[in-house]
Write a structure and sequence with these properties.
heterodimer, A: about 375 residues, alpha/beta, 2 domains, three-stranded antiparallel β-sheet, 13 helices, about 20% strand, elongated, B: about 475 residues, mainly alpha, about 75% helix
């Protein structure tokens, strides 16, 4: 009995002291590639921060982020939750066949924000239609994988009613080209149209939407037959993986479609300018070595990206794309249909959007958002009058 | 600071244990005192002053009562006690109830007085009750007044029980304050108990608490979901609160203190009367000893007893928070206990045990639904849903919640059961024999078979608790209203 008491005592002290010491001895990590976020740094001491409790909060966050073996602790937690039959882990759903899903429940949606966002786009189109014909103003709203791949969702998993919201937007956009891609995506739900471990659509998903968009706006889509599929990565674990941190998670592939016979380099020959000064690139291969490989498309999100398109002959058309990250894998498909393409991400761009149209001689506008981003975005007011 | 935080686990605890054990015995109380002040100031850097004031105030009053007692002036003794109680209740009343009172005056008279917006100091209800127990006991002659202010301050601010109980009465640890030894048994059992408490909080309470958190914010409730939510909260509050008590008791032992048990498998009760003998024992004993019995208890006839019960239970409710739902919750139990006292308890005792279990759990779960929701309109909506008024019986949400939490719920049910009987049986003893040795965990502590696996159990629990603390951000402190 006595020996065992000694064992308990030693085990307890060794465990508590050991983990604490290991944490203090190891070098702090700045960034967690697995979680795809910056980790907390050691807070600076000040009496002011201590008195209002901020220092204490930051220190707790710091110890939690910099604990020895942080990623392994989380994978243990996830493994336990998973083996207990839980499919709601880390704010995401663990679905079937290696598919993970974004978790957005009805309570997460702020209906008044949705209304404001719809009105913002409507007002913007109303202003734009003074100079641009209405059939050249289009709105493509992408459903999340939870709607399209419903059969892969955990049974009964709660999800906001995105169809209702998509239809709400559709009704508001009756004067313009609203591109509803739900049917087309659902029809091909057994194809690889969303990543398994990331919330984005794949290039295939973007292509299906591209066909529908062309059809709605009266353009001719480039046929799949004249395109070549090039796989650029096969070890992608995306944003949903980062939330769940499941050790035996699947890997995703990333690929692109290039005109047959053309290499990626040929596509990359297009001149790209980021935020009006920095040179950019359409396919940023350096990002394939990093954790967030979706940033391969345009190197990630920027306030403004200007692409000089590669049409056979001048089209006289300049497209403005008001967008979120879903457009990054879509826009490379339309490079040869416009002289110039301007992508604006309102999360990072603060210029006046109404004067933007005349300044850049815009002839076509495409608003492209994923439904979950669109209903929660707090930047769409910038469309009306700017800052 | 809370126990289930890395500041506590990775820094505070190892450092304090180290300093405590390298210090000579005569300065150990000082180490504990300073450590406890840091522990409290960590969460309340300003309000720590109120606690210090309270300490000096009660120390002085204890000495004064002793002094007047020696001089034989009963009147002055009584006056000092009255001053002390008014002082303590005044502090509690001001910081905890002032805005509640103003708010109610406003809504009754429309006076439009402005609220004071005072933040409630953490643990104030615990330590004011503790210090009052001291002066009252000195007055009653049940304990000697403490002359060493350092020892007294150590009692008041002792970090293991400071912010979420148990409410340790001074007399329980009076001797240990000046004289205590920590043997290997105390330290190892304390460490084991701490690990159990941490696991209850992090692995059980926080996990099922996430479900309650989701359900309580849902717009569309069904009867099944509402019940699942109330059951989830019932498990959360039990494992959270008893987990804190386990951690407190365990930490206390690691420093040589023996606190009384605070929970005794309350969900095994066969009546509401029994439930309250098993739930938050230190609080119900406090109210019995310092309110119910002084009011006359059951010695002044039935009508007076009923009135006393109602007063005690209204106060018990109000102690848990300055909101009407807590008053309602207290009165709910007051009424149930009166009914049991009048006739129901005798009836239940004659029925099969399972009826008593079902009856108690049903009422307790409804009680927690009242307790959990401070917004009266939300509460009404929720209770209506529980009784199927204006909502569907069940929908897919319920089945999803159930599928995610089925295993967890089974674990929770098993952990709510009185496992001492199982260990008692392992030792070829009857369940009754388990209890007779005083501590409710004697059987657990003395079982040789269990001893062999204890280090492994402890390490696994610590390991999993750390994993869930790192990986899951849901880690609430439920007692901020107390």
């Amino acid at each position: 009995m006595k020996n065992m008491r000694l064992v308990i005592t030693i085990c307890f002290i060794a465990f508590v002291v050991g983990i604490s010491a290991a944490g203090f001895l190891q070098k702090d990590r700045e960034f967690s590639p697995n979680e795809n976020r910056y980790l907390a740094e050691a807070p600076e001491f000040s009496w002011e921060d201590v008195l209002d409790g901020r220092f204490q909060e930051k220190l707790e966050e710091y110890l939690r982020d910099q604990i020895w073996g942080r990623d392994r602790w989380i994978t243990v937690k996830t493994a336990v939750q998973k083996s207990a039959g839980n499919t709601d882990i880390g704010g995401a759903y663990v679905g079937k066949d290696g598919y993970d899903f974004e978790k957005i429940v009805p309570e997460d949606v702020d209906d008044s924000q949705v209304q404001r966002n719809i009105v913002a786009v409507q007002d913007y189109f109303d202003v734009a239609s003074d100079t641009i014909s209405k059939d050249r103003l289009s709105f493509l709203l992408v459903p999340t994988s939870g709607l399209v791949m419903e059969d892969k969702l955990p049974k009964n998993a709660r999800l906001f009613d995105q169809s209702a919201y998509i239809e709400q937007v559709q009704n508001a956009m009756q004067d313009y080209n609203f591109v509803d891609v739900r049917e087309e995506l659902c029809a091909k739900s057994d194809a690889y149209i969303y990543y398994r471990t990331d919330h984005h659509w794949t290039t295939e998903g973007a292509y299906i939407a591209y066909e529908k968009w062309c059809e709605t706006t009266g353009m001719t889509a480039v046929s799949k037959d004249s395109l070549e599929q090039n796989i650029v990565a096969e070890d992608f674990r995306g944003s949903l993986y980062s939330k769940i941190l499941n050790v035996d998670s699947a890997y995703d592939s990333i690929w692109i479609y290039t005109p047959a016979g053309e290499s990626m380099d040929a596509v990359n020959a297009c001149k790209v300018t980021v935020d009006e000064k920095e040179p950019g690139v359409i396919y940023d291969v350096t990002k394939l070595a990093e954790k967030d490989k979706y940033a391969f498309f345009f190197g990630g999100n920027y306030g403004q990206v200007h692409i000089e398109g590669s049409p056979q002959q001048e089209t006289g058309r300049n497209l403005l794309v008001v967008k979120d990250s879903f457009a990054n894998s879509f826009v490379p498909l339309i490079l040869n249909q416009y002289d110039n393409i301007y992508m604006v991400d309102l999360r990072y761009y603060n210029g006046d959007m109404e004067s933007y149209l005349a300044e850049h001689d815009i002839t076509d506008v495409l608003v492209l958002y994923n439904i979950s981003n669109f209903i929660s975005d707090k930047n769409l007011y910038k469309l009306n009058g700017g800052m | 600071m809370v126990f289930s935080s890395f500041v506590f686990l990775c820094a505070f605890l190892p450092i304090v244990l180290f300093l405590y054990y390298i210090s000579p015995a005569r300065i150990r109380n000082l180490v504990l005192l300073v450590a406890s002040l840091i522990f409290y100031a960590w969460g309340e850097p300003v309000y720590v002053l109120i606690m210090l004031f309270s300490t000096v105030f009660d120390y002085t009053n204890g000495r004064l009562i002793e002094y007047f007692k020696k001089k034989g002036s009963r009147g002055k003794m009584k006056a000092t006690l009255v001053v002390d109680i008014c002082g303590n209740l005044g502090i509690l009343g001001f910081f905890k109830y002032a805005d509640f009172v103003i708010d109610n005056i406003n809504s009754i008279t429309g006076a439009g007085l402005s609220l004071l917006h005072i933040a409630l100091p953490i643990g104030i209800s615990f330590y004011t009750f503790q210090t009052m127990s001291y002066t009252i006991d000195v007055y009653r002659g049940q304990v000697e007044a403490q002359h060493n202010i350092l020892d007294f301050a150590t009692y008041v601010v002792l970090f293991p029980q400071l912010i979420a109980g148990p409410i340790v009465q001074y007399k329980t640890i009076a001797n240990e304050l000046s004289q205590r030894k920590v043997g290997l048994t105390d330290f190892s059992e304390g460490a084991f108990r701490f690990a159990i408490g941490l696991a209850k909080k992090v692995l059980l309470a926080n996990q099922i608490g996430g479900l309650w958190d989701t359900i309580s914010r849902m717009n569309e409730l069904t009867t099944a979901t509402a019940w699942l939510g109330a059951i989830a909260y019932s498990f959360q509050i039990y494992f959270d609160f008893s987990g804190y008590s386990d951690m407190a008791i365990g930490l206390g032992r690691m420093f040589g203190f023996h606190f009384l048990e605070n929970f005794n498998f309350p969900y095994m009760a066969k009546s509401i009367t029994e439930f309250w003998r098993r739930w938050h024992i230190s609080l119900s004993s406090w109210f019995r000893e310092y309110v119910y019995i002084p009011l006359g208890g059951n010695r002044k006839g039935l009508p007076r007893q009923v009135l006393n019960l109602l007063i005690v239970w209204m106060l018990t409710g109000l102690w848990h928070g300055a909101n009407w739902n807590f008053v309602l919750w207290g009165l709910y139990y007051g009424v149930l206990l009166i009914i049991e006292k009048l006739f129901l308890l005798k009836l239940i005792e004659k029925l099969p045990a399972w009826i008593g279990h079902v009856y108690s759990l049903f009422l307790v779960v409804i009680g927690w639904a009242i307790f959990a929701q401070t917004d009266m309109s939300q509460l009404t909506r929720f209770l209506k849903a529980m009784f199927g008024i204006g909502v569907a019986g069940v929908n897919s949400d319920f089945w999803y919640f159930l599928s995610c939490n089925a295993v967890l719920l089974i674990v929770l049910v098993l952990c709510s059961m009185d496992h001492r009987a199982w260990i008692g049986k392992l030792r070829k003893k009857s369940a009754d024999a388990v209890d007779h040795e005083g501590s409710i965990y004697v059987a657990v502590e003395q079982s040789r078979g269990l001893m062999i696996v204890k280090p492994a159990i402890m390490l696994v629990l610590l390991f999993l608790s750390y994993a869930f603390l790192v990986g899951d951000s849901y880690n609430p402190f439920l007692y901020f209203r107390f």
